[in-house]
């Protein structure tokens, strides 16, 4: 699939639009992450590290983390998504859910690891990407990690030719958005998801460390 033909979520930046998305469509991106995410986590932050899953959607990644012995707090600004995530999660799972907009100065204590799978890439402009990166910095302890998984443009040409779905950014654009607060420790390109022709487009898997200042 070319990037301009993506069938992923439409770009949207507010909770009401995401509530509508969860109410009206079956999210095609909702699936367990590929093994690479597990490998990066095991290497850089083995369990039982406490992970904040930001923009957790229906909680699939949060439950996948809990199954791997992580302690998980999972948040999303869509109340519908959180209600459905709670419904799908066994009562004894080590996942706590919060309805929270992470860009709105959240009152949570900073975490050793924050994760976003497919959230930064819903930000269509540099300003919004920096707003989201600043929010991740507030949620992450100094010296802690941000694990990011999101759409990757492999060339400038790819970045120009996109019409809907996630915002594909080049590595340079990505680094420019995050560098005020984070150092890149690991950067890899692999498929976003496991579904052929649906989510197997190029994604960036990045381990970032929160600067101490
Ligand atoms: C493409 S979905 C990805 C969901 C999930 N991470 C996954 O991999 O299936 C993006 C999610 O981010 C949430 N989101 C976007 N901006 C947010 C914000 N500022 N605070 C909290 N959640 C946000 C949306 O409601 C949506 O559930």
From TrEMBL:
Domain of life from the UniProt record: Bacteria
GO molecular-function term, one example from the UniProt record: methyltransferase activity
InterPro entries recorded: Methyltransf_25, SAM-dependent_MTases_sf
Statement: the UniProt record of this protein carries the keyword Chaperone: no
Lineage: Bacteria, Bacillati, Actinomycetota, Actinomycetes, Kitasatosporales
Chain ranges of the Methyltransferase domain: 51-144
SUPFAM superfamilies, per database record: S-adenosyl-L-methionine-dependent methyltransferases
Region (Disordered): 1-35
Pfam families listed in its UniProt record: Methyltransf_25
Record's protein name: Class I SAM-dependent methyltransferase
Gene3D superfamilies cross-referenced by the UniProt entry: Vaccinia Virus protein VP39
Keyword terms of this UniProt record: Methyltransferase, S-adenosyl-L-methionine, Transferase
Signal peptide location: none
One GO-annotated biological process of the protein: methylation
């Amino acid at each position: 699939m070319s990037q301009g033909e993506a069938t992923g979520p439409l770009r949207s930046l507010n909770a009401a639009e995401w509530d509508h998305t969860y109410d009206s469509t079956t999210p095609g991106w909702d699936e367990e992450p590929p093994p690479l995410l597990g490998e990066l986590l095991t290497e850089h932050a083995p369990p039982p590290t406490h992970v904040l899953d930001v923009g957790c959607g229906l909680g699939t990644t949060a439950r996948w983390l809990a199954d791997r012995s992580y302690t998980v707090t999972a948040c999303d600004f869509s109340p519908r998504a959180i209600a459905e995530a709670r419904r799908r999660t066994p009562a004894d799972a080590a996942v706590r859910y919060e309805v929270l907009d992470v860009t709105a100065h959240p009152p949570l204590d900073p975490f050793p690891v924050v994760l976003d799978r497919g959230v930064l890439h819903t930000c269509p402009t540099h300003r919004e990407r920096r707003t989201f990166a600043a929010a991740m910095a507030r949620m992450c302890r100094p010296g802690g990690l941000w694990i990011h998984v999101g759409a990757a443009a492999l060339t400038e040409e790819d970045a120009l030719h996109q019409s809907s779905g996630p915002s594909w950014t080049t590595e340079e654009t990505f680094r420019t958005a995050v560098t005020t607060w984070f150092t890149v420790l690991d950067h890899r390109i692999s498929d976003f998801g496991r579904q052929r022709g649906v989510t197997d487009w190029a994604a960036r898997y990045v381990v970032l460390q929160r600067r101490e200042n």
